Amino acid sequence: MTAPGADENPDSPSLVSVAVPVTLDRGFTYLLPQGMERPVPGSRVLVPFGSRTLVGVVRPVAAPEPEPEALSKLRPILETLDEAPALDSHLQQLCEWMSEYYLAPIGEVYRLALPGLLTNADAWVAQLTEAGVQVLDPSGPLVLGVDAAPTSAQRRILLAIAAAAGPGLPVAKLSRMRPRIAGALRVLAECEAQGWCRTQWSDPEEGGPRTESHFRRTALLRGPGSSEAQLREILGRSKQRRAILDLLESRSRAAEDEGDSNGGDDDGWMSLAELRAPFPRARQLVGPLVEAKLVAQVERPRRTDPFDSVTSAPVEPQTPTSDQAAALDALAKALAADQFCSALLHGITGSGKTEVYLQLIAMARAKGLGAIVLVPEIALTPQLAERFAARFGDEVAVLHSGLTPRQRLDAWQHISAGDRPIVIGARSAVFAPVRRLAVIVVDEEHDASFKQEDGVRYHARDVALVRAKRAKALVVLGSATPSLETYALATGGKHLLLSLRTRPTPRPLPEVAIVPLSVHRPDPQSLLTARLTTAIGDCVKAGEQAIVFLNRRGFATSLTCTDCGSMQRCPDCSAPSMTYHLSRARLLCHLCGHIETAPDACTDCGSSALEHGGVGTERVEVALATALPNVRVLRLDRDAARGRQLLNTLARFRRHEADVLVGTQMLSKGHDFPGVTLVGILQGDHGLAMPDPRAAERTFQLLTQVAGRAGRGDRPGRVLVQAWSVNHPAITFAAKHDFAGFAQDELDRRRPMANPPFGHLALMRVSGLDASAVARRMAGLARWVAGAVEVVSARHEDDSDPERPPMLTCLGPVPSPIERVNRRTRHQILLRARERGPLRWLLSELRPLLGSEGSGARQTLATVDVDPQSLL
Questions:
Q1: How big is the CA angle at 540 (ends 536 and 545), to the nearest 5 degrees?
Q2: Mean pLDDT, the chain, as a whole number?
Q3: Could you give the CA distance from residue 841 to residue 811 in angstroms, rounded to a whole number?
Q4: For a disulfide at 398, which of 307, 488, 650, 780, Cβ 3.0-4.6 Å?
């Protein structure tokens, strides 16, 4: 690759390197047409790609000089879409680094950094001119200046443009016309040169009515008794369409149960924006459901972003505690230095980390500087948005998955123009185009949701650190339970270590009691021990609230035949069983999303002796309502709460309209419920058996975070942790709120194995529909990796020390712990290195061997996850 700014041969055609949003792992070279001004790096350009037209981004590197025979095959840029760069130099450098570090296609990385409408090729449309109208009208007058009648291909394109509704025909659709038109883009250019049509950029949502489509489940084939065969006939194998149908049915049932008491907001209709959050292609997916009359569609006034409706009265900064004051003093000095600095703000739950963020950002704003605040899931932290709006008003932009494409573009433009210098958002907000960026906060930096598990597998915390370094900004990583990698860097002097050891009010940390399940046997139907059930009843009688935590959603984790012993498994995955969801009478695979109606008889032997095994949050909710009939119970998990429904559930519990909140790890995301004095954890050791080196760390973090929801009001809190492995360090240290003790114990276990933070990991995986093809390709890659490991070992022979782990180790190949997901077989190799350098060398050499290979059902895909957070 030629270095940025390298001289080009003045006699050669002008070349431009463009990041095109495709999964091919390379940049693409295009010709600069004669007379077109060279687009600046970071600007968007319209380029031909195969039979399609795509929006790419000009890279800040010189295009490599092609071979003479390849030069004639280069295609020209069609149009420059930006006068000024859409991405500044820092974001361009960030994208280039991400592609190199995460071995990700450069075009896919650039696509992450821009809102969807700015990379939407369908927004490039063709419109018929008056001359084109007359050319298509054989009875009309002759058109001056037309030398020839259109060819059959030109005529087909002109007819398609004439038939298009709205702002015009998306140019991208020309490649999808059937029968296919050879060289469709060339034919379109010929039509435009004749003056029969024109092409332009058109935002499909701009100027449209302020309404949007809303959808609701109809009664057709609805309910437990519906015909599974008929549904499959209509839906085919589309798991996403089935999931949308199931979600709409759940929303309709919830609205009916509440008697439509909340009017239009909760009457069972879901907006397209709400559907787009879990299903980005919702518009295309829901169409066939409407045609089949399984779903009804209406147009309603467009709902506003729920975070835009936050109207908190201005709030003055709180007087900081001594710990907060010390942290703010250190951060103020780092901010004033105008140099890159990273800090770990390690504070116990409820110690006031958010107030430190607010006052630090206020310092930055006093100097006219900008800030980004990353949170694990923005929809789960409405209180944070309220607090920032109360402190900074209209200066705050909130980015989240529920925004429509138009709303996301509007927010991006406000941020880019400097109108919203403070951005709050989840993982992708790290790319927000904040001007004069000075502060990046990563709240709950340990949370696994900061790591993207597909596509570009980046970690937002690490990307934030790299972006801040290039911008000479300050990064604050906040957590009560920091990741051990971050904690080790802080104690080693790489991050500034700041501690908050007390809460702002005299509220002590909750008292934690461990309930051994070997002594206090739980109810098999609910997992509740008598001790916890009594404690919940006493808590409610005292006018207080309780949280019950179980990290498994659904009613039962299996449906087992007591005659033949088989479990009702997902047809496309190798997990032991699907999860049964009572409210929908459905079996759901939480791996691939497969949904089917719960059978009346065993699918293996035909017996009707089916028994629910295991317990999920839905079953606990039912059991609590039965055992404590006067207690009001709400449930918070991904089945019961999405979008506005989620915000409503949180608001209802905060207003004390319910006594008990049952939920999954969504409860651990920093919520502040002043009325909660009791937290019950049903299976505290649930995650310890996972085949993952971070299993103990995640269990400790989850227990500590959930326990921290208790005792945040005027009354002290307490926590009951039910567990079998009561002596496991993750349980015992969490019960004592002893992070330092757990960290030391866990780090001592990791050091001999060179597991992070004492080493570095990369997970290579091969997947495909054909198991034998996967095994063959993995075997070939494994041989190559083994040879590369030998090369590294030979280079470091003098460095061998029997007391230290090897410089580079290859573990595998082996089938993945869950070998088959969504019909794709998966095999993997784990690479573990004592130092980063040898691993980076191996990955750079391996990169050309990755990607797709083969075709059809025998096609395989090889990927690498750098710094993986899960090995499943």
A1: 85
A2: 86
A3: 18
A4: 307
